[in-house]
Design brief:
heterodimer; A: alpha/beta; Aspartate Aminotransferase, domain 2; Aspartate Aminotransferase, domain 1; 2 domains; 17% strand; B: alpha+beta; Sufe protein. Chain: A; 43% helix; globular
């Protein structure tokens, strides 16, 4: 991986953002005649050349089906697929690579836990506790389980500053709670949630924790054993990897106790019409030919991030975010939603008298890509009494100059409306 | 910027700042709620309808972007006093104009709708412009109390 060796770890002050930008081909283009300022990273991040090359090389040279043939290409594909799993294991500090299940993204990760863990175990009267700030992907799968089992879904509220109300959480998480599901970082506000405290509350109540890490992986080095959560899931595409790739981490004893989620090839030891013996972990949950190239790309992503260092990424993004928050505070008629003390590089805002959709269209004409809408977090939008926001979300390759471009474009919105 | 100016003509801003027929009608014969789940836009249409189906009075409220508010403002001006058949024909022409181009075949009233023609350059915004019309269609056809653009 050329990028992994090319970028030495440096103190944040010397963070070589231009060097990193050079690794991302998509950043170097014009939109409506303006240089692209890509600030929609919380929806999906751009891809470094190293990841694109890894996927391309795999298809050009190593592709065959995995775990099947005795021929050379099948062995290479299997090595690449399982090698990537081991890279991810090391990256998140899981105890064993069998605890890392390939999924299509965090959405499938939550659905897998909901259907394979929760559905057979929950009964009427049991409770699942989520938070009001969850992405719909960490709400709807639990509602489906509730319909199937008679369990009840409850939601931890959010305070005005965008932080979870932990006093309310302590009251909600109790003897009936079987599952506590929450995002590590809120996709709509950027709030970093207190995973350790929520996990401790859940453990005290005898509940398992399911953490949606989709927004955390691009910003933090996640250590699943330090967090001591039971399940942790994330999507590759938000951390500069391929769409359709992702991981569900689960503690081995829990995953072992679960029946398969889907049936098919790859997930069996033997099949007869008298009965089937399922494969061991992790293959038990990976029916069918998997997204091998996606796994390879995810492995390359982890290599790339490792070469840069997440502490450096976090320090750089924090400086960019602080600058953006300062610019926002100096912009009349602009309101930033939420003021959490711990915030990842996400800035959701509204402008007096201008609908976020109109903001988004005008910004696009200035080359600035932001997300507008409810961010798949309608309960949170309702909590703040708004229908939608404009959201600028920063990645490791964004700069202060791009923050200036964002606020220059915001000025254009103000001129027009 | 030319496409952007075509989208956001001054007339659009005028309607957005001071929408016509904004508010509730007393004793509406029909009340239909429209929703665009993509962006969260919400709109409610209130209609008083004569026995022969003509739209005696119409008003709307809700919240949405400049395009959807202007579209609702212009639409309610246009269809007030029209027959249901006329209103539905305008919707067909309007839909053709914002998705295809041209003037939707022209005809009486279309010059008022032409200010929204710039939407055709913005496929992501077409539903903003058509939300009021989808809602009106549901009201005239006596469909459900809530319609969605999805």
């Amino acid at each position: 991986m050329k990028a992994a060796t090319a970028t030495a770890i440096k103190p944040p002050a010397d963070f070589a953002v231009e060097k990193i930008r050079a690794d991302f081909p998509a950043l170097h283009q014009k939109v409506h005649g303006r240089p692209l300022v890509y600030l929609d990273n919380a929806a999906s991040a751009q891809k470094p050349q190293a990841v694109i090359d890894a996927i391309s090389d795999y298809y050009r040279r190593d592709h065959a089906n995995v775990h099947r043939g005795v021929h050379t290409l099948s062995q290479r594909a299997t090595d690449a697929y399982e090698g990537a799993r081991e890279k991810v294991r090391a990256w998140i500090n899981a105890a064993s690579s069998c605890e890392c299940i390939y999924v299509s993204g965090a959405t499938e990760g939550v659905n897998l836990v909901a259907q394979a863990y929760a559905r057979p175990r929950l009964k009427s009267g049991d409770e699942i506790v989520a938070t009001i700030s969850e992405h719909h992907s960490n709400i709807v799968p639990w509602q489906m389980v509730c319909e199937q089992t008679g369990a009840v879904l409850r939601a931890i509220p959010v305070q005005d500053n965008g932080e979870l109300d932990l006093r309310a959480a302590a009251e909600l998480i109790g003897g009936r709670t079987r599952i506590v599901a929450f995002g590590h970082i809120s996709n709509a506000l950027g709030t970093v949630n207190p995973v350790a405290e929520l996990t401790a509350m859940a453990r005290a109540a005898g509940a398992v924790t399911v953490v949606d890490g989709a927004q955390a992986m691009p910003h933090l080095r996640v250590d699943v054993r330090a967090l001591d959560c039971d399940f942790y899931t994330f999507s590759g595409h938000k951390m500069y990897g391929p769409t359709g790739s992702g991981i569900l981490y689960g503690k081995e004893a829990l995953l072992d106790s679960m029946a398969p989620y889907r049936g098919g090839g790859e997930m069996i030891k033997s099949v007869s019409f008298a009965g089937t013996v399922y494969h061991d972990l992790p293959h038990k949950f990976e029916a069918g030919t998997p997204f091998i190239a996606g796994a390879v790309g995810l492995g390359a992503t982890v290599d790339y991030l490792g070469g840069i260092g997440m502490e450096q990424v976090a320090a750089h993004e924090s400086a960019v975010l602080d600058y953006a928050l300062a610019r926002a505070a100096d912009t009349p008629g602009l309101t930033v939603i939420g003021r959490p003390r711990q915030r990842a590089a996400i800035l959701s805002f509204t402008m007096d008298g201008v609908h976020p959709h109109d903001i988004g269209t005008v910004l696009d004409h200035e080359g600035v890509a932001v997300r507008t809408g409810h961010h798949c977090a309608q309960p949170l939008m309702q909590r703040f009494g708004i229908a939608a926001t404009a959201r600028a979300s920063f990645g490791m390759y964004n700069t202060r100059a791009e923050v200036d471009a964002l606020f220059a474009a915001v000025g254009k919105v103000r001129e027009m409306f | 910027m030319s496409h952007l100016r075509e989208l956001y003509q001054e007339v659009i801003f005028d309607h957005n700042r001071n929408p016509h027929n904004f508010g509730k009608l007393p004793n509406p014969d029909r009340t239909v709620h429209g929703h665009n789940p993509l962006c969260g836009d919400q709109l409610t249409l209130y209609l008083q309808v004569d026995a022969d189906g003509a739209i005696r009075d119409i008003a709307f409220d809700g919240h949405g972007c400049a395009i959807s508010v202007a579209s609702a403002s212009i639409m309610t001006d246009l269809v007030k006093g029209a027959s249901a058949a006329e209103a539905l024909l305008w919707f067909d022409k309007f839909h053709a104009m914002v998705t295809g181009g041209g003037d939707g075949g022209g005809g009486e009233g279309m010059e008022k709708l032409a200010v929204l023609g710039g939407v055709r350059q913005y496929p992501m915004r077409v539903k903003c412009a058509t939300l009021p019309w989808h809602t009106l269609q549901a009201a005239l056809r006596g469909g459900g109390a809530t319609v969605s653009t999805e």
